[in-house]
Design goal:
Keywords: Hydrolase, Protease. Pfam families: DUF3656, Peptidase_U32. One of its GO terms (biological process) is proteolysis. It is an enzyme of class 3 (hydrolase). Its EC number is 3.4.-.-. By secondary structure, the protein is an alpha/beta fold. Among the domains are: 130 residues, no CATH class; 87 residues, Thrombin, subunit H, CATH 2.40.10; 96 residues, no CATH class. The chain is built from 13 helices and 27 strands. The strands form five sheets. Strands 1, 2, 3, 4, 5, 8, 9 and 11 form an eight-stranded mixed beta sheet that branches. It has a six-stranded antiparallel beta sheet with strand order 7-6-25-26-27-24. The chain has a six-stranded antiparallel beta barrel with strand order 12-13-16-15-14-17.
Length: 588
């Protein structure tokens, strides 16, 4: 369960009650960002450190492991060598993002949303300023890029790096799925299930962390559900094509070209068959013009006439031979609406006993075994072969369960006649016992004890970027040696220009203006500040070339500074309710 937002003091007691309720409900572990949780009076629930904790160094990873975190989600920006170094110096399980949307800033280090809108990304309410179009100017005021989505990243895709990530120590693979639909979840999880299964089958040193095999009834394709293009980000060092500058939307796959646009239709030539309900689009002046195909009619070899549900106003601007993309494959999506996969666990079944009592034993592939009996008076069968076949089929009939019969042994001295109803009862009750036994066999995770001697936090001064938003978080850091602690950005104490976003993505590098990459006469260039402009919002870009980072500098808007602090009781009260608390004026 995730509780990975920073908490205001007014939220600490409700959070404590919530965590207790979750533990008593049976939740296995809690993913948290706010270190104040560590100081609360909560049950010994297993704790995982969120990616919002900004875990980029061996020192920080080791500290979090030593204070009681069993699992840590590393920053997306790390490369294989950095991941391996953390794995080798900590006993926490390593978790890493392998797919989905990328935050351009280090997670937990982005305050641009709160600065501009009052919506805090550290509290799960990001307004996604990174997906807006911006104009980039250099220090001389010259336009480098105009109205491009310069902070919008392509989507993370680590398909090609799974084996290397395993070798680097990653044991939990995280897929970003916020706001994603059912088709996306089915498709992407199926894709990585198949990729991991293939790696495990190929290597004798690996095993699944859970029992069962999954069968898929469709062919997964990462290209057929939402993405902004694909990148493996920094896992294999810095690359120049990690941005989705043209559009933050899903364009899909190219399927052909536009031949002609009519009043209520368009003629196209395609490499793949089209069908009613497909989602199609063309790019016109850096904008996606999309539509659903209401009706498609084949007009020749690889040619179709398409009538949209609603003709987009700008579609007439499409020129002959302009690329046509499909971002919704109707037939493929329909397949996902049905049962698309099935996960089954292998069991070995033995039927023993004799005429007065039958004994059914089921042992699943992870070693859990149960035995159940059925008393009765069972006569020897006159048709032995048929009776044995009925017994074998009856105990192996597991179609509506999570199991399948791998081996079936009828270990009876002879053949018995057992009514189907009784045999079904014996099998059903044995399966129920196996379900309970498998649950009981899983040990519940517990909080790791703090190491002895207690660890010391690797820094003595924490800026607002440490996101300390309540007195319990402050107590936590003081307990482990931090001397000076600034309040989180959400506390509204930072009123001037500060880095509202720190990112490994560098626009100088993206536009070949990086001094490190320069050659010849431009090698003497300095990484001078630049400007990022959206409407009347002007942000300053500063470049820290030693760690290869870009700082987006801005200030909190005045009206946001005057707003109640996020999470405070005042912030949760509506204006009407607040007015009711004011004393009435005399004569009113």
């Amino acid at each position: 369960m995730t509780l990975n937002t920073i908490l205001h003091d007014d939220e600490l007691e409700p959070a404590q009650r919530l965590i207790t309720d979750l533990y008593e409900t049976g939740v296995d572990a809690l993913i948290v960002q706010d270190m104040g949780v560590m100081q609360l009076d909560i049950p010994p629930i297993e704790l995982h450190a969120s990616t919002q904790c900004d875990i980029r160094s061996v020192e920080k990873a080791k500290f979090l492991s030593d204070v009681g975190f069993s699992q840590i989600v590393l920053a997306r920006e790390l490369d294989l060598q950095q991941i391996k170094a953390i794995y080798e110096h900590t006993d926490a399980t390593i978790e890493f993002f392998i797919h989905g949307a990328l935050c351009v800033a280090y997670s937990g280090q982005c305050n641009i949303s709160h600065a501009q809108t009052g919506r805090s990304a550290n509290r799960g309410d990001c307004s996604q300023a990174c997906r807006l179009p911006y104009t980039l100017k250099d220090d001389q005021g010259r336009v480098v890029a105009y109205e491009k989505h310069l902070l919008s990243m392509k989507d993370n895709d680590q398909t090609a790096n799974l084996a290397q990530l395993i070798d680097a120590g990653v044991r939990s693979f995280k897929i970003e799925g916020r706001y994603k639909d059912m088709s996306y979840v089915k498709n992407i999880t199926a894709h990585y299930r198949q990729m991991l299964d293939a790696i495990i089958e190929d290597r004798g040193d690996l095993a699944r962390s859970s029992a069962g095999r999954t069968e898929h009834f469709f062919v997964p394709s990462t290209d057929k559900t939402f993405h902004r293009g694909s990148t493996d980000y920094f896992v294999n060092a810095r690359k120049g094509d990690i941005g989705a500058f043209d559009s933050p939307k899903f364009i899909g796959l190219p399927v052909g070209e536009v031949l002609k646009v009519g009043k209520d239709h368009l003629d196209v030539e395609v490499s793949e068959a089209l069908t009613n309900g497909d989602g199609l689009n063309v790019m016109i002046k850096r904008e996606i013009v999309g539509f659903r195909a209401n009706t498609v009619e084949k007009t020749g070899e690889n040619r179709y006439r398409v009538w949209p549900n609603e003709m987009p106003a700008d579609l007439y601007k499409a020129r002959p031979h302009q690329a046509l993309n499909r971002n919704l494959d109707h037939n493929w999506q329909q397949a996902l609406q049905k049962t698309s996969s099935e996960r089954r666990i292998a069991v070995d079944i033995t039927l023993s006993g004799w005429q007065e009592q039958l004994v059914l034993t089921m042992t699943c592939e992870d070693g859990v075994s149960v035995t159940h009996t059925l008393d009765g008076e069972f006569a020897e069968a006159t048709q032995a072969d048929k009776a044995l076949a009925n017994l074998r089929d009856g105990v192996a009939k597991l179609g509506q369960t999570i199991y399948f019969a791998r081996n079936v042994e009828i270990a009876l001295p002879g053949a018995l006649f057992v009514p189907n109803g009784l045999l079904n009862q014996l099998r059903r009750e044995t399966v129920e016992r196996l379900d309970r036994a498998r649950l009981d066999a899983v040990p519940r995770g517990q909080r790791k004890p703090v190491s002895v001697p207690p660890p010391v936090y690797p820094e003595t001064h924490l800026s607002f970027l440490a996101n300390v938003y309540n007195h319990k978080a402050r107590e936590f850091y003081q307990r482990y040696g931090v001397k000076l602690i600034d309040a989180a950005y959400e506390a509204h104490e930072e009123k001037g220009d500060v880095p509202v976003m720190i990112t490994k993505h560098c626009l100088r590098f993206a536009f070949n203006l990086c001094p490190k990459q320069a050659k010849g006469s431009i090698k003497s260039w300095k990484a001078t500040p630049m400007q990022l402009i959206h409407g009347d919002e002007v942000l300053t870009l500063k470049f820290d070339c030693r760690p290869c980072e870009m700082h987006v500098v801005g200030k909190m808007k005045n009206h946001i500074l005057k707003m109640p602090l996020p999470g405070s009781i005042v912030a949760s009260v509506s204006p009407d309710e607040l007015l009711k608390t004011l004393p009435k004026r005399k004569g009113a």
